[in-house]
Design a protein that fits this description.
44% helix; 444 residues
Length: 444
């Protein structure tokens, strides 16, 4: 479980490996290296996976929507997993210390997996441009700035829950999580409410476009056209916000553009990034809150009796069922991880959700424990690329947990509608795409 490279101490500082050599079940399939070259482990599809588990793939075929069984095996048997793709090998790193240290080593594990960088998305950019662009929007995402939206989030959350209670339940993704996260980020950017549906479509398509050009994902066939329309809409929006002297994040980015500190391309794409990052990950986290409460009904009573525990609930939720599954990097030099030598130029996927289930860091990781010490969890990232919108995601999730505890007597998964998971594309984010519950309001 060591990473040998020039960052954050030496290999001796890391925990000892739990397994040595090839992964169990690899048999004699380990590649034979040429003299003077490192021995490479077998590919994912060459390993003997446990019964019921498909080999882990670069692009999900539907078997990885709920990937935690895969993660349990990878953590123990293949902490550095090599998978084949039509473009290149892709290396998946799953153990906590390895993922954390790689996230803290941007000079070795570079975010610029595509050059030239095709979109002004912070997840694709290294210093110094990353620092410059992040600072432009960082002030809008401080806890103090986000607190100004608390009343709006509470009002929207209560209104949406009113509808769920009146109907006896429903799909919490479409009927609660999406409208709550969309209305919040739209307010932050000052996008008109009547444009929500259009913005959601463009946002999803742009995320697909991002996955296709930056992660070799399949795309939708219409994603580039939709992304172009989205950027044009945001340009018009920023023109309006600038003319109004608007104080929203969108208005701030518009002024930076007009003052010459951002190019038009950077301004449009940075706005798109803020919008997508501000609602997509939070949507899944909110849906997972309902899922956990349905699976552990006693937590509703706990949150009802102690609303302040919503903060602990949120941190454990981000550890237990966080949204971000894969963080893409490319190595700038040869580096050793868990006894495996990755070559310079290796395409890497760091796995924060798997790392959060590493028993070496979090005992009994597959148990949701609201009283757990979650210090150091990677649910909101780590290092220079830590989630910019984490304060907003935390606010929406804490408020949701408080309101559900106060207003619901019961929530259950609807057995007539199995959970449908986000699938395909680059699977950066994973979680429920459709989650139907039944609910009962609490009568005081």
């Amino acid at each position: 479980m060591t990473i040998t490279c020039p960052f954050e101490g030496s290999a001796a500082d890391a925990a000892a490996p739990r397994t040595a050599g090839a992964a169990p079940g690899a048999g004699d399939q380990t590649a034979v290296a040429r003299p003077g070259t490192p021995t490479l482990p077998p590919y994912s599809h060459e390993l003997h996976w446990p019964e019921g588990l498909e080999p882990f793939k670069v692009v999900d075929d539907g078997s990885q929507g709920d990937p935690y069984a895969h993660y349990r095996w990878m953590l123990e048997a293949a902490p550095v997993l090599r998978a084949a793709s039509p473009v290149s090998d892709v290396w998946f790193i799953s153990r906590y210390e390895d993922v954390r240290k790689a996230m803290r080593a941007p000079k070795v594990f570079s975010s610029e997996v595509v050059k030239p960088v095709p979109l002004t998305f912070l997840t694709l950019i290294d210093a110094p441009d990353h620092s410059r662009l992040r600072q432009i929007v960082a002030k809008a995402f401080t806890p103090k700035a986000i607190a100004l939206f608390e009343a709006r989030v509470r009002e929207t959350a209560n209104r949406l829950l009113d509808g769920l209670i009146a109907r006896g339940g429903g799909d919490v993704v479409d009927e609660y999580a999406i409208p709550l996260s969309m209305s919040t980020i739209s307010a932050l950017l000052d996008v008109p409410a009547e444009d929500f549906e259009k913005m959601k479509h463009w946002s999803d398509e742009t995320f697909s476009y991002f996955g296709r050009i930056a992660r070799n994902a399949p795309g939708t066939g219409t994603d580039e056209e939709s992304a172009t329309a989205f950027f044009a809409y945001l340009k018009d929006t920023m023109e309006r916000l600038y003319a109004e002297g608007n104080d929203s994040v969108g208005g701030h980015i518009a002024r930076m553009w007009k003052d010459g500190q951002l190019s038009e391309k950077e301004a449009k794409e940075l706005c798109a990034f803020v919008f997508i990052a501000g609602h997509d990950t939070t949507t899944i986290l909110l849906a997972n809150a309902f899922r956990v409460l349905a699976q552990q009904p006693a937590l509703l009573d706990r949150l009802h009796a102690a609303p302040a525990d919503a903060e602990a609930f949120t941190e454990e939720l981000a550890r237990y069922r966080g949204t971000v599954q894969r963080v893409s990097r490319v190595t700038t030099e040869e580096v050793e991880v868990a006894g495996v030598t990755l070559p310079k130029g290796a395409i890497v996927r760091l796995m924060p959700a798997a790392a959060n289930h590493d028993p070496a860091k979090f005992p009994d990781p597959d148990v949701f424990d609201i009283d757990r010490d979650t210090t150091g969890h990677l649910g909101f990232g780590h290092g220079v690329h830590a989630c910019l919108g984490a304060p907003l995601a935390r606010l929406e999730t804490v408020i949701t947990a408080e309101i559900l505890g106060r207003r619901l007597a019961h929530v259950a998964l609807d057995p007539a509608h199995p959970i449908e998971y986000v699938r395909g594309n680059n699977l950066t984010n994973s979680g429920p795409e459709r989650l139907v519950v039944t609910v009962e309001g609490r009568h005081e």
